[in-house]
């Protein structure tokens, strides 16, 4: 009898251990929910560094399940096109840092419209089907708006989901002018370095060729926000070049530009002018993207062309012609010009967004705030998505020089650290750039096919 | 008496030695005539490497006097604006190799017209006034024509002068299609590397953004010669990208382009097209330079714009718009994209031109000929200036693929070695590119002022 009691106690003990283990394993499984990361909007030279940061922090956490990337941003979510990033070779993940633009997993300009509830419902359906517990969205103000809406709908449906935004835009137009929301966006430093370097190059060109090509016109991205145009000043912080910046915030006319250029040509026989893509007089020539924003790259004419024509028609007080350059997407995708500082910060913001998510923070965007200009020092925090969503930052008025065609030294102190001090590491293979090769094989679809609202409306 | 004879013999001996020494010194002085080096036409990322090669070989020879550089090419000769290069810090001369474009000593597009004898006479006057015994002219076919004419006039006037040409042009349009005159021109390899790299970057961009920006259009330099457009293929030797090259030699119409793009969009949903600057339908929009050549950068519209507009008007079988890029002078002046091979060859051609000159060779252009593609091997020779002058090389027909929008593997075998295998050395200072700083102080003028013929005719 004593033996039987001992046996019962023994078996009871074993059962307890088994039950406990099972509960623990279930907890473990419960905690290890899957991750979805996606990108949206125009790319930057370091957008993939943020992607890598998210991926590596997820892999290393040990607390997450599979890590999926949506193919072409929110479109991939709607179409249930998910790439299993845990199945990619680790060397290719490592190479993301040196891979510019959004070719690795794709991006899009798909607008999730308020009244298209079907799209939002579909997103939650896909999340549910693939047990997505974490959603990381790398993008600008439109994307933060989208992420915020997804979070709100998930809450409404009682679907447990952590949503984190990761900032990205070469335009540097997120947040507020006081820089309490974000100091600068990843991508801007690399774009600024592109401009600093090419203006140095164009200065050598223009100085050498000015008796035949006296004015060199370059068109900068940034829509109505002048941060990119302003960054050209970094090429020449001591103001030795005949450089004029037509900041959109200055609102100068074509006539004023002609007079300014005449003045500079009389002074130095040559002139370099940077005009924002929005420096145009003919809105009829503008095409728009899915968000209703002007797609300047697709316009029937360009700010560069209007300025070059106005200059050549006007004539010059010296010999020569005006010639024009439109770097276009090169300023957001040439890896050789990437800033090492920008790349590292983009990577860190990706990692931080995961660290925040793991503490249960949701509905926020990881952000970067500045401690000091010199020595340059930053800290990483988070801000509500709703604060960032659909808000455009312009170049602060106090950073525009009185002439309207230059920035102040305060701007230089702000922007200079962002371009870094060294060349980025560039991996070459057979003399060409070796970028990450992400295999675009999708995980098995679990839902019926779906036609996204905007695609249904589209003519093809 | 014997003593007197001894004394006379002694003094005679001394006199003989003195006379001999004087003659030797005079010989030495005669041999050490001054050097003039100048540049002409549009620059390249490695034009200054040739300049450095000329300078260093002159300095090292011990057989030349002062080495002057003409400020802004032949214009500086006419205006007697000569820079004493022997007075520049040696570190700045060394930095020329990493300094792109023609800003260091300047270039021009001044056309020496046959009937403007006054200009030619003036050149010889300036040479005579500064005892120029060697003239090195770095440039393309127009420049070789100018150099040849200067040589002929000097001979006619009995003025002793050694004239050597140093080839330079990103267009690679010097010489003959069989490449017996020159295999390739310095500058082309760096421009080709620019295109190889940016097409790699644009491919990442276009792949990532194709649901909104389905066609990326890029405009290449090269006038009517397709070598630069062709070099884009180096980005993708295995033909994995949806890349179309509108080689000027193919003569394809805008309609054919629209059909080709439609085909590619149906195949892969996206397309990258490179169009030469001459791919335009409206000659009325073209402005011309001093040589009567079309100055495409100054045109009232661009090939890019015409193509983007035709595409967007035509519409697409997929979602998206066409967007355009005009790199313009960036393709001939961005040092980060310089080819190490190209840079070294440009430097060597500068040196070789001096070595040839020192053996008495004159009226020739130093040239580079190929021994083999793999391993890549070249030799340096010289060809008469008259053979190179005013001759344009086009992309050989046999290197154009049957489609008309691609090149053959033979072209790849030809062009691939020219872009090199490694990153160029880039000197940075405070995070920016550190270029050579040549002091533009002119040597004392010895002649009355002169107004060059083309400047006299000019309205300002």
Concise synopsis of the structure shown:
Chain A contains 14 helices and 13 strands. By secondary structure, chain A is α/β, with parallel strands linked by helices.
Task: Provide structural commentary.
Chain A has helices spanning 2-31, 47-61, 73-78, 90-95, 117-129, 141-156, 188-209, 227-231, 254-268, 303-314, 340-358, 385-388, 409-415, 453-457, and strands spanning 34-39, 67-70, 82-84, 132-139, 162-167, 215-220, 243-245, 271-276, 322-325, 364-372, 377-384, 428-429, 432-433. Chain A has 460 residues and is α/β, with parallel strands linked by helices. Chain A has three domains: 1-27; 28-187 and 338-391 and 423-457, Rossmann fold, CATH 3.40.50; 189-333, Phosphofructokinase domain (Rossmann fold), CATH 3.40.50. In chain A, strands 3-2-1-4-5-10-11 form a seven-stranded mixed beta sheet, with helices on both faces. A four-stranded parallel beta sheet of chain A has the order 7-8-6-9, with helices on both faces. A two-stranded antiparallel ribbon of chain A has the order 12-13. In chain A, a hairpin with a 4-residue loop joins strand 10 (364-372) and strand 11. The first copy, chain A, is elongated and about 110 Å long. Chain A starts with a helix and ends with a helix.
Present the secondary structure layout:
The structure is a homodimer of 460-residue chains.
Chain A: H1 2-31, E1 34-39, H2 47-61, E2 67-70, H3 73-78, E3 82-84, H4 90-95, H5 117-129, E4 132-139, H6 141-156, E5 162-167, H7 188-209, E6 215-220, H8 227-231, E7 243-245, H9 254-268, E8 271-276, H10 303-314, E9 322-325, H11 340-358, E10 364-372, E11 377-384, H12 385-388, H13 409-415, E12 428-429, E13 432-433, H14 453-457
Helix pairs in contact in A: 2-11, 5-6
């Amino acid at each position: 009898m004593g033996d039987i009691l001992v046996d019962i106690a023994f078996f009871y003990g074993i059962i307890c251990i088994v039950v406990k283990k099972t509960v623990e394993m279930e907890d473990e499984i419960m905690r290890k929910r899957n991750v979805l990361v996606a990108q949206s909007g125009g790319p930057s030279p370091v957008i993939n560094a943020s992607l890598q940061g998210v991926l590596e922090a997820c892999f290393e956490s040990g607390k997450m399940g599979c890590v999926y990337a949506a193919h072409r941003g929110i479109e991939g979510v709607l179409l249930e096109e998910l790439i299993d990033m845990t199945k990619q070779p680790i060397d290719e993940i490592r190479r993301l840092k040196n891979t510019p633009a959004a070719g690795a997993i794709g991006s899009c300009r798909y607008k999730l419209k308020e009244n298209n509830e079907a799209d939002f419902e579909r997103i939650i359906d896909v999340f549910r089907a693939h047990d997505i517990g974490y959603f990381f969205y790398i993008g600008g103000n439109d994307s933060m708006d989208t992420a915020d809406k997804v979070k709100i709908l998930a809450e409404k449906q009682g679907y447990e989901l952590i949503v984190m935004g990761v900032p990205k835009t070469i335009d540097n137009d997120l947040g507020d002018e006081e820089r309490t929301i974000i100091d600068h966006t990843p991508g801007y430093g690399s774009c600024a370095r592109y401009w600093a370097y090419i203006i140095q190059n164009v200065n050598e060109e223009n100085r050498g060729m000015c008796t035949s090509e006296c004015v060199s016109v370059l068109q900068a991205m940034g829509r109505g926000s002048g941060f990119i145009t302003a960054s050209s000043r970094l090429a020449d912080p001591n103001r030795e070049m005949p450089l004029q910046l037509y900041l959109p915030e200055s609102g100068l006319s074509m006539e004023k530009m002609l007079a300014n250029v005449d003045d500079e040509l009389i002074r130095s026989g040559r002139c370099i002018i940077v005009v924002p893509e929005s420096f145009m007089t003919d809105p009829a020539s503008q095409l728009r993207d899915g968000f209703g924003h002007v797609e300047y790259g697709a316009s029937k004419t360009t700010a560069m062309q209007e300025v070059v024509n106005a200059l050549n028609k006007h004539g010059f007080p010296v010999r020569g012609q005006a010639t024009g350059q439109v770097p276009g997407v090169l300023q957001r995708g040439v890896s050789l010009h990437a800033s090492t500082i920008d790349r590292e910060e983009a990577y860190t913001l990706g990692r931080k967004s995961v660290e925040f998510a793991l503490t249960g923070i949701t509905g926020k965007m990881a952000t970067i705030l500045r401690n000091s200009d010199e020595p340059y020092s930053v800290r990483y925090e988070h801000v509500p998505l709703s604060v960032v969503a659909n808000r455009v930052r312009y170049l602060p008025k106090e950073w525009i020089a009185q002439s309207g065609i230059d920035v102040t030294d305060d701007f230089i102190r702000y922007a200079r650290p962002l371009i870094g001090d060294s060349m980025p590491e560039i991996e070459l293979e057979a003399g060409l750039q070796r970028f990450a090769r992400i295999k675009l094989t999708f995980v098995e679809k679990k839902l019926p096919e779906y036609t996204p609202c905007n695609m249904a409306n589209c003519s093809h």
